[in-house]
Design goal:
Distance between the termini: 60 Å
Number of helices: 1
Strand content: under 5%
Radius of gyration: 22 Å
Number of strands: 0
Order of helices and strands: H
Helix content: 40-55%
Shape: elongated
Length: 45
Amino acid sequence: MTLIILEALGAGLILIAIVWWTMFSGRKNGELPPESSDEETPPRP
């Protein structure tokens, strides 16, 4: 029973570590701003 609880806790910690890593491993200053262009964008249908 103890082994099952330890395995579940270990799997949970690994899951939390993966989620944490993917959430906070992006660019330092966030996303790049969109490129500004002088051309008008065509309207969406």
